[in-house]
Input
Amino acid sequence: MKIGELANLAGVSVDTLRFYERRGLLQSPPRRASGYRTYAPTAVERVRLVKSAQALGLTLAEVVDFLALLDQGKANCENQRPRLRAVVERLDQEIARLSATRSKIAGLLQRCEIDDCSFGTG
Output
């Protein structure tokens, strides 16, 4: 399939696919005589796997490392455990940051509810 078809089926842009190729997340496919890339149907699942891993909180570098191990048949719980712990730690930090922000906004809202709109003074 052509790059536009892959992008459509995988739910990403053509630029994203080119970026993934440059980063090694997606193998560069063979080209037709016309110069068009020809992707295998398995490329759709590969791109979806990348997006799923990112949605779970893995950085792009972590996804690259994970896929390299996966491609070599070496991905296992032992070598993925530290990666997953790092993601959980980042998520916990983000949750704490969001919770603190929510508390501040809720405090401002309480003041607004009683028409005490003294923003930035407390």
Q: What stands out?
A: The helical segments are 3-10, 14-23, 42-55, 60-71, 77-113. The mean pLDDT is 93. The first helix runs from residue 3 to 10. The chain has two domains: 1-56, 76-122.
